[in-house]
Structure formats: C-alpha cells, structure tokens
C-alpha cells in the first residue's frame, strides 16, 4: 500500500529533490504573503510583544531557595539562564546571576543551540545536567555544568545528540537512557535500555538496570533523594497511556507497584497518589476514572489497599493537576473549563480541605511551582483571555504577595469573553470560549482546538493573538472538544481509535454554532491547529470544507497510513490505532486528510507550516499534503522553517515571522485584504518600543 504513495520522496529530510521542493514552496509563500507594509508592521508588533522587557520572568525552583529563569529578548534571542534571590526578585529590576549565555555559547561553538532545560543535583545544588538542542528538536546534547564556577565540567557527564532521559542519583552517579547503539531504541525512537553510569567510567561500561521491548514507547529510571525516603524507581512505558513501574531495591530487586497500567501515580514522602484513567476496583470499592486516591506507600507495597478519595469527578468537574508542597497537597480542578484550586492537609484523621489563598475568582489560575523539599510555598499565575498574568507567591496557611503583574499587550476596551455550548452530532454538550466585541456584526473569526491526548485548552492571555487579531477587529474562539482533558479521562476516551470522528463532529458543531449565533459566517471563519490540532484542521479541510473560509495547520499529523513509521509516531498508536491492522486502517482511512484530498470538491485556501528540525511529527506530513493539494489544483501555501523543532520556531524572531505569516494569511483570505498597520495603542509595550 505504501508503494502507492507518489510523494514518498518528500519524507527524505536531506534529499536534494525534497530540499529543492521546500525552497520553491517557501519562496512562493513568502513572496505572496510578506509583500507590503502591513506584514512588516505586523511582524514588528509581534516581535515587540515577544521581546518586551516587562514580561514576567517566570521562575522555577530547584530546592536551593533561588529563583531560576531562562530569559530571551532582542539582545539574547537564544536566551540566558540565570538565577537570583527572592529579595532581588521582588525588585523592579533584580540583579541576576547569569549562569549560561546561550548566544555566546552558540557563537563560540558554531552551533544553533536551543535551550531544552537543566536538571539540578539534589541535595548539594552545585551541579546540573544541561540539555541543548540543535535547532529546537527533541533530540538533545547533555553536558554537566558547574553552577558555582559557571562552566561546563571537564570530563563530566556528557552525552551526544539523542532523545535521552538522564537524571541524578548522587554526585557521582546518574541514570541514563539514550541511544546506546543498534537495538537500543524502541520503534518510537526512544530509549529501550536504561543504565546506571558512574563518574569517570566509559558509558559503554555502565550497568543495565532495566530494559524494555522494541514495541514499548520507552524505559526510564529515577531516584528520589528526599532525606529519610531515598528510593529508586524503574519502569516501561507500554504505550502512550499505559506503564509498568517498579521500586528498585539496593540489591537490584524490582518490586511491582500494583496500580493499574493506565493510572497516573505519584510518590511523595510517605504518600502514594493514584489517578486511574479507567474504573478501578480496589479495597472493596470501585473508583471512577479521573478520581484521585491516596494511601501510604509502604502499606500499599505490603499489600494494603485502603484508599482515601481525595477527588471524585462529576459531569462538569475534572482534576487538571496536583502539586505537593512539603506538607500539603494542592488540587487544581476544572469546572466547565474554569479553574478551581484547593489545598489538602493530612492531619492524622483524614485530609483537611480549604481554598488555596490568593486565587482570583474569575481568572484562570495555575500553580507555577512548589518547593516540596523545603516548605509549603507556592507560585501561582492567574490570567484570562483579556487579563494579563499576575504572579503571586503564597505560603499555605500564611501570607500571599503579588510578585509581578504583566503589562497589557493590546487594548481590550470593548472586548468580552463569553462561553457557549454547542450540541455535537450525538448530542454531547461541547463548550467553547468566544473572545471579541460582543456587539459587532459578524467578523473575521479564528477558531482553534486540539482534542487529543487528554490535554485541555484553558483560558490564557496571548499578546500575539491580541495584537495580531483581536486589536484589528477579529474574533478569537477556543473549542474544548472531546479528546482533551477538559472533563477528565472520559472526555478523552470518548474519541480514541475508531471513535476519533466524534472529536471532528464536536469541532464542526462549534463552527456551525458560531454561524447560528451570528458571531461569524463560513466565509469569515478561519481555523488553526498544531500537531494533533493540525490533524484536526486537516480533517476540517477535507470533511467540512463548506464550514470554513481558510484553514491553517501547524506541524500537523496528516498521513494516517504512515504516521507510525515516521519519527515518534509509533508512540501514538494507543490514541489513533495501528494502520498495519486492516480493521484499524479501515477507520483511519476514513478520515486521514492525506488520503481524502478530492480534486472535484472545492476547498478553502490552506496554509501548512512545519519545521525541518521537527523530530516528533515528521515534516513529511505537511510536505506530502501540500504536494497532493497542489496536484489537484487547490489553493495551498506552504512554509517550512529550517529550525524550531515541534514548535516550528527556535527563537522570538522566528515565532514572530511564523505567526505574522499565519495571521496575514487568515486575514487576507477571510477579510479579503492585507493586514493594515494598527493605529498607535496606549500600552506599556508601545511605550517601551518607541515610535
């Protein structure tokens, strides 16, 4: 069946013919969309938003009472990794201790380094393992870094480029899962073997501690250094949602942690938390999918099954996350996609509940970080579609202070946020948010969604959407369709495998409801989505073309026949199905955008955006879709960034360009004219950026 694909050659990342094809398509798209003052002004506005000096420098805690931050701006496009004290962070202009300058490092080494994170040694905090990506892909180079001397450690722990998983055991040992050579990777391209590596010895001599099978997603190992609770864990990810996990003893014995394979679990000090994805009968009770259960870890290993229910979902409420402090547990829930937070305290008799202090009533709030090694502090960010973020520092049972307020990036006067519910084809109630002028006639409207992997879309403040779309009179819509995590595991499970079309029916229902309510018209309605959301918009193009005036897909999955053979695609088969199984291919074939392009049907214009360096979703998806659409005479624009990984951009300059291209395309196709420069708006961003 694969030999029937006439565009298979476009999957060759480094092939001369494919590279020439990409250059030609890029040149066509850039020439068509970037001409004129409107695009240049839009791109400059978005760059100012992304680089604004008064953005919140979101911190992360590492356990040493310091505030770590990666900062990018016009002078530091790749970023500087830095840290400061709480006292300094409270100041309008803190004094930062710069640990690593990525721009200087890239220039010195002649590499296009993109920051991918760092893991700090606990306790001690003097060393870390820095992850650097070439161009923004998932594959990284790992290097040990001395935080006190601010230099890479000569002859320290280093790994060449690979999709590695590395974590500290102690100052002289790490767990490492990486590409050890032939046979060491799974079919998804992730490590199949994890080893214990001792400082000063060759990686080849590291001791194997756990192995998986070729058809697993990956294996892993981790060490918990909490004083008095030191322990090690190993496990296999069987597919995207199921795992096998063990406690690893000092003698090498693997003790199974007998929670359901599809459950999420977490161990903190004496506690084990379990969130099943399907109903779990245990200890004489059956707990629903999406509940959160607590028990003492040692008692559970010994066979005890007495569970305390910390959260039970209902038709409107789902658990979106939980966060340990030293002695407390913060629960984050969604009620019709609106955030609620509370704190639970084990008190010997049970778990005492109270609202989390400092949470505003109407904004969406998320826990940025906690410090479970040391105290009950938490960082809380609150924002909304029209409300810039506020960062607060709280202490459970104590004071809450505002550390930072983000400036407004656009004028929100006259705009409002409304929530509606559409009825899907099977009658399911599907929520969506509408942002814009509620009194305006039908306007160019940008609808976005995702609907997969139990990932919710929640209210957020976007200066890019605000300046590039809302401020120009556009309406912005976020659809919370099934497949996401807005209503817990059941909302996700409803569209797995052969039931996937329900997600697309949900999205089409939202589009139709927008028209029924007079918010927009099909000719004025554009749709955008990325990754699995790109699959969503690809299906809208081929299944529901009359509902939309323009379609954009970023780093999309589009070829459902070969997705599992490209890069990390095999890890998604639990979500979509296995195309090599005839029964699965039958339902995948029914909606695969690449296989449903019709030359006799009118399609709205489409823009496909991807990255050569995306090593998660292969750019071949977008390349081949563009080629097939062109073959059938459809209006298709294509842009492939050479960097950027799965985000399609490696820095703010590239992000501004990609989003300016996207919004310019949509505005031209929907409004029938190019973007026009905005009149000057009174905002801190403008004040800082000058005339």
Summary, kept brief:
By secondary structure, this protein is α+β, with helices and mostly antiparallel strands.
Can you walk me through this structure?
The chain has 691 residues and is an alpha+beta fold. It has a domain at 409-671: Alpha/Beta hydrolase fold, catalytic domain (Rossmann fold), CATH 3.40.50.1820. It is built from 14 helices and 39 strands. The strands form 9 sheets. The protein has an 8-stranded mixed β-sheet, with helices on both faces. Strands 5, 6, 7, 8 and 9 form a 5-stranded antiparallel β-sheet that branches. β24 and β25 form a beta hairpin. The longest helix is centred in the last third of the chain and has 20 residues, at 652-671. It is globular and about 65 Å long. Residues 680-691 have low confidence and may be disordered. InterPro entries: AB_hydrolase_fold, Pept_S9A_N, Peptidase_S9_cat, Peptidase_S9A, Prolyl_oligopep/macrocyclase. One of its GO terms (cellular component) is cytosol.
């Amino acid at each position: 069946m694969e030999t029937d694909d006439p565009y298979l050659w476009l999957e060759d990342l480094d092939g001369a013919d494919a590279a020439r094809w990409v250059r030609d398509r890029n040149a066509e798209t850039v020439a068509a969309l970037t001409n004129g003052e409107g695009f240049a002004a839009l791109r400059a506005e978005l760059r100012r938003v992304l680089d604004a000096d008064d953005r919140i420098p979101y911190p992360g805690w590492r356990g040493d009472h310091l505030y770590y931050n990666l900062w990018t701006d016009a002078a530091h496009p790749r970023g500087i990794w830095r840290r400061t004290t709480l006292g300094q962070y409270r100041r309008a202009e803190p004094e930062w201790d710069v640990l690593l300058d990525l721009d200087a490092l890239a220039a010195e080494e002649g590499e296009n380094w993109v920051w991918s994170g760092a893991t700090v040694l606990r306790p001690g905090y003097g060393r870390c393992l820095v992850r650097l990506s070439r161009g923004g892909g998932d594959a990284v180079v790992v290097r040990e870094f001395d935080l006190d001397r601010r230099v890479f450690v000569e002859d320290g722990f280093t790994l060449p480029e690979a999709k590695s998983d590395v974590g500290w055991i102690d100052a002289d040992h790490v767990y490492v899962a990486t590409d050890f050579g032939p046979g060491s990777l799974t079919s998804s391209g992730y490590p199949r073997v994890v080893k214990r590596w001792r400082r000063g010895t060759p990686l080849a001599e590291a001791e194997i501690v756990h192995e998986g099978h070729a058809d697993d997603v990956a294996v892993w190992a981790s060490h918990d250094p909490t004083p008095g609770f030191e322990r090690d864990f190993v496990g296999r990810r069987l597919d995207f949602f199921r795992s096998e996990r063990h406690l690893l003893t000092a003698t090498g014995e693997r003790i199974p942690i007998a929670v359901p394979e599809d459950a999420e679990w977490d161990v903190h000090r004496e506690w084990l938390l379990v969130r099943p994805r399907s109903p779990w009968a245990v200890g004489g009770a059956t707990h629903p999918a999406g509940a959160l259960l607590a028990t003492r870890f040692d008692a559970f290993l010994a066979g005890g099954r007495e569970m305390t229910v910390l959260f039970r979902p209902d038709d409107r409420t789902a658990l979106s996350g939980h966060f340990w402090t030293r002695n407390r547990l913060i629960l984050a829930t969604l009620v019709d996609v609106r955030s609620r937070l509370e704190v639970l305290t084990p008190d010997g008799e049970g778990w005492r509940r109270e609202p989390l202090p400092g949470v505003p009533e109407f904004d969406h709030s998320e826990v940025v970080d906690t410090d479970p090694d040391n105290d009950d502090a938490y960082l809380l960010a609150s924002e909304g579609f029209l409300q810039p973020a506020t960062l607060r520092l709280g202490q459970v049972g104590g004071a809450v202070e505002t550390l930072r307020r983000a400036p407004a990036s656009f004028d929100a006067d006259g705009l409002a946020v409304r929530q509606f519910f559409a009825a899907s084809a099977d009658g399911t109630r599907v929520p969506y948010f509408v942002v814009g002028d509620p009194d305006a006639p039908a306007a160019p409207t940008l609808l976005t969604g995702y609907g997969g992997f139990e990932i919710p879309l929640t209210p957020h403040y976007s200066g890019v959407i605000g300046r590039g779309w809302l401020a120009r009179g556009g309406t912005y819509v976020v659809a919370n369709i099934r497949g996401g995590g807005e209503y817990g595991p059941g909302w996700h499970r409803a569209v797995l495998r052969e039931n996937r079309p329900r997600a697309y029916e949900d999205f089409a229902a939202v589009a139709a409801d927008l028209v029924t309510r007079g918010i927009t018209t099909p000719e004025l309605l554009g749709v955008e989505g990325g990754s699995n959301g790109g699959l969503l918009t690809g299906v809208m193009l081929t299944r529901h073309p009359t509902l939309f005036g323009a379609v954009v897909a970023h780093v999309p999955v589009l070829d459902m026949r070969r997705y599992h053979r490209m890069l990390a695609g095999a890890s998604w088969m639990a979500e979509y199905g296995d195309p090599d199984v005839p029964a699965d291919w039958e339902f995948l074939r029914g909606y695969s955008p690449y296989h449903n392009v019709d030359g006799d049907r009118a399609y709205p214009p489409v823009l496909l955006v991807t990255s050569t360096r995306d090593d998660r979703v292969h750019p071949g998806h977008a390349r081949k879709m563009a080629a097939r659409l062109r073959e059938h005479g459809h209006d298709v624009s294509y842009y492939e960034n050479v960097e950027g990984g799965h985000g399609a951009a490696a820095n703010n300059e590239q992000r501004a360009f990609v989003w300016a291209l996207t919004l310019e395309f949509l505005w031209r196709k929907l409004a029938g004219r190019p973007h026009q420069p905005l009149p000057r708006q009174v905002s801190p961003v403008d004040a800082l950026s000058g005339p």
